[in-house]
């Protein structure tokens, strides 16, 4: 027990950020980290971080990314605290980045790691051929206690609109 406490005090403990998860190889998702999670994030050897939160990352987190050579892609979704801030343009920008393997390893991050991140990951899943039931199951898993029917309905409507626009562009 003393050895375990000594390891924890020495900073060897890796603490993932809230709502951390693997999307696919070298693509991760999470909520905004506290300083406790910086070592864990560093262990992922990220090349890029896609920031979807309505406010800028903390100065300490930005400095951590800079020192680690991680490129911050801040989409500037700043105008609303709701999913209304997730626009077709912002999701298209996010997907263009996610579909570019040269930016990997990549982490997608918003304040809680559920709603904005979930919407972007949901659109990615649809592009990957997932059915809506599986997409919403994943969304609910990360939204947890914050899961609200209105948020899910908003994401569903967004997905339908996004997919309709993609089909129109292909024709």
UniProtKB/TrEMBL annotation:
InterPro entries: PFA-DSPs, Prot-tyrosine_phosphatase-like, Siw14-like. It is an enzyme of class 3 (hydrolase). It is found in: Cytoplasm. Keywords: Cytoplasm, Hydrolase, Protein phosphatase. Transmembrane segments: none annotated. Its EC number is 3.1.3.48. Its main location: cytoplasm. It holds the Pfam family Y_phosphatase2. The keyword Hydrolase applies. Coiled coil: none annotated. It comes from the Eukaryota. GO terms for molecular function: protein tyrosine phosphatase activity. One of its GO terms (cellular component) is cytoplasm. The keyword Zinc does not apply. Signal peptide: none annotated. Putative tyrosine-protein phosphatase required for protection against superoxide stress. PANTHER family: TYROSINE-PROTEIN PHOSPHATASE (PTHR31126), TYROSINE-PROTEIN PHOSPHATASE OCA1-RELATED (PTHR31126:SF8). This is Putative tyrosine-protein phosphatase OCA1. The lineage of its organism: Eukaryota, Fungi, Dikarya, Basidiomycota, Pucciniomycotina.
